[in-house]
Amino acid sequence: MNDRLPPLTALRAFDAAARHMSFQQAAAELNVTPAALSFQIKSLEEHFGGLLFIRHNRAVELTEAGRALAPGARDGFETLVTAWCTARRVTDHASLTITTGPSFTAIWLAPRLYSFARAHPDIELRFSASLSLVDLTHSEVDIAIRFGYGPDNADLHAEKFLDDWVTPMMSPELAEKFPKASDMAGAQLIHQDDIRFLDPPCDWPAWFRAAGLSPRDWTGQRYSQADHAIDAAMSGAGVILGRGALAARALKEGRLVAPYKVALKTIADYRIICEKGAENRPQIVAFRDWLIEQTTYVAELAHDHDLIDLRDVSSA
User: Fold this and answer.
1) Which residues span the domain enclosing 253?
2) Is the pLDDT of residue 309 over 80?
3) Structure confidence at residue 316 (pLDDT)
4) Going by C-beta distance under 8 Å and a sequence separation of 6 or more, which residues neighbour residue 266?
5) Per residue in 24-80, pLDDT tens?
6) Hey, how many other C-beta atoms are within 10 angstroms of the C-beta on 296?
7) Is 80 within the bounds of a domain?
8) 133 and 276 share a domain?
9) What is the pLDDT of residue 24?
10) Which of 91, 117, 148 corresponds to the end of one domain?
11) How many separate domains does the chain show?
């Protein structure tokens, strides 16, 4: 039996045809003609010494030998593509691909990026705004920025760069109507669903307990994204239990105010995550250092409030 491997192009043609179960679709994927793909598979079968496909008039099916080869061919090419991408990323110091949540991208990251671009004109930034989990080993993403709890995957490097906290925030006009925390009993509330995963809950009932206020009717506007909730609060539509990290710019510019001392520390934090060993790549070091520098104002804002750990706020 000849154990010498056939040409890679022939195996590639077989893998595509086995996945699509169609020579025509496989040819389209590989950007070759169906005749060229058929020739590659025929040469592979000659090298193998037997049929790998049964040809029908308008379809193909794998033989027993083809079914034995297909999983290994698929996994082999996936492994090869992963290794190739990893090798390229190791030597690529000119680009950085980042994934983070849509709200963090829109509210926090995008307005500040000009300063990073100005300081590092040699680094090309690429963004993917998504809350979906990303396999950093098998994708082109270099860094994931996530808000939540650890611990993270042991194969990844995770570094906290920002704590978060919440407190009532509103437009300056509404702040004049509700000068004291006790006035919140009559305020129109805005709810954010983006932090509903926190446990214990970081919500209006928790803040009212922390402030020593009596429960009230919790109905109000509800938004799935923090940026939409912040926009509603800035328009004067109601009071948001705003997150310090995301609302910092609006607070600094006076579009929102946070008039009360009581704030809840969320326990969860923002982390920068990358493959273990990649944390020392020059572009990742530069971006991480810039992120930490940009969070200084958020930490300063927290000093204006009495932060209460959510775990210390007993349930009603």
Assistant:
1) 165-265+295-312
2) yes
3) 47
4) 163, 164, 165, 166, 195, 198, 202, 243, 310
5) 999 999 999 999 999 999 999 999 999 999 999 888 999 999 999 999 999 988 888
6) 9
7) yes
8) yes
9) 92
10) 91
11) 3
Backbone CA torsion sign across 253, 254, 257, 259: positive
Given a contact cutoff of 8 angstroms between Cβ atoms, the answer to whether 284 and 274 are in contact is yes
Is residue 213 located within the same domain as residue 244? Answer: yes
Q: Are 136 and 278 within one domain?
A: yes
CB atoms within 10 A of CB 123: 17
212-229 pLDDT, tens digit each: 999 999 999 999 989 999
- Residue by residue, DSSP assigns 183-207 as GGGGSPEEEEGGGTT-SS--SHHHH
Judged on CB neighbours under 10 Å (0-12, 13-18, 19+), 46 is exposed
Reading the block at residue 236, the tokens are: 């004067």
Task: Return d(Cα 314, Cα 75) in angstroms, integer.
Answer: 51
Residue 141 lies in a domain: yes
Is residue 2 included in any domain, yes or no? no
**Residue 233 in contact with residue 166, Cβ under 8 Å?**
no
Percent above pLDDT 70 for the chain: 93
Of 280, 56, 279, 3, nearest to 152 by C-alpha is 279
